[in-house]
Each structure stands twice: as structure tokens, then as C-alpha cells.
Write a structure and sequence with these properties.
This protein has 285 residues and is α+β, with helices and mostly antiparallel strands. 53% of the residues lie in helices and 11% in strands. A hairpin with a 2-residue loop joins strand 5 and strand 6.
Amino acid sequence: MTPTAKGLVLDLLSTVRSGSMPVRALVAAGSLFNVEENHIRVTLARLLTDGTIERDQRGAYRPGPASRGVQALVAGWRHAEERMTRWNGDWAAVLTGATARSERGAVRRNESALALFGFEPLERGLWLRPANLIDGIDGLRGLLRDIGLDEAALVTTMKDFDAETERRARALWDVDALTKRYERSIAKVEASRRRLPRWSESRAMVESFTLGGATIRQIVRDPLLPPPFIAAGALGRLVRAMRSYDEAGRACWRPFLEEHGVDFARAPVHFSGAESSALAAGGIG
């Protein structure tokens, strides 16, 4: 996925640990992805206006309040498995029937928020996931509200389904496809990690940015299913592979970022500006 000017700016600024990133660094990075300087500057002006980014006294930029929650969400990929606890058979349920279908914006925000937390629709207006997230139902309710779930939606716990409903609920996720996707992604990042040192600096930067972003998106959007849905540790293997890849990405980007005086916390990756801004618009942060 080729980044847009907006996506590139947000993804690069999300790596800043302290201080800010100068415009020249953003423009230089844009050239690696064929994003024109004018597009970078116009995007900076727009993001500054809506509060997504901030400018310091030197004219350099850092994330603003509207995007910090998204950054925290993305940064949490390293600890994805720690968000889960043992499943006791209960279901987290969200009933969205109070949201009118004619309210398209609210419907889209509901669906985006629910998908991000691994919910699937059992039937129209009823979304389920195993109640195995460490936040509990109260914490989950708050997180869903923070990223745009309609206040009218009911977030609760369900249990004691009849046998047929239980069967249907457990079949909502294609776990075979999910497991195979883990394996494919692990193979991709491990192969890329081995070849990055042999490539030119610019090619390695682009590769690690693109593949790293795709893998982190996969982890962040993982449904976090417990056994018996999926084997214990399956997601953890992907996370560990991505941690190693992140170290390789840092090595690729370090000379560039240090040249521009950027104090960075991690390697830049393409998480997708459109997805991040949609979450921010939903109220995160």
C-alpha cells in the first residue's frame, strides 16, 4: 500500500519520542515514496488546522491531541497477547439496534469500532466476541465509546446460549484463515529481515516501512481469540517476529532520522493515515 501525503506525515510523526520532526525530514522521506513536497506542505497545514498535529517554535511538527490516542493504540501491538485473559465461556455483546440505519455516519463508526475489537455480527444489530479481554466489560465499553461507538448502543455480557446459537457464535471467525495469515506474515517479515542489510538504504527504508505497517495493522486489528478458537501462542509468534523486524527497521531508518535530529521511539511504519484519522475522528484521545 503506497502512503498518501497524509498517511506518511502521520506515520512518521508517530515515531517521535520527544521534540518534533522538521519539515525537511518529512519532505525528504516523501521523496522516497514519490510524494511531492507541495503535497506534504499542504497536508501539514490541514493537519495543523484540525489539531491532529502541532508546530513548535522552530517550525517543526509533532503529533497533536487528536492523534495521541491512536498512537497509543498502535504502539500497543507489542503487548497484544497481554490484553487477553482466560475465557470462561461468556460473550461480550453489543446491541446497535437503537442506531437508525439512516444515520450512516454513526453506523460506519459503530462498525469500525466493533471490528477493531474483534466483534462479528451474529445477526442484524447484535455483535459478539468472546469475553476474554483483560479490560472486562466495563473497560471494553469505555474503549468502544472512545473510538466512536454510538452512546445508544448497549454493551453487555451474554451467556447460556442454546446449543445452536452457541454453534453459530463460535463459527463467526474463520480461524483456519487467521492461522494461515499468521504463518504467511511471519514468513514475510523473517525473509525481509534477512534481506534488508543487503539492500540500499532507501530501498530498505521503503520495504521496512511498508511491510512493517502491514504487519502491525494485522496485529492491532487481530480479534484476540482465546483457546479453543485458536491455539495458544499463535498470535505471540507473529508479535515476536515483528519485534525483531522492528529492530531491523530501526537500523534502516536510524541514519536518516539522526541526520535530521529526530529523537525517535521506533522505526517508522505505514499504519495507514486514513485508518488512523478515522479512529481519531471517532474520538480517541
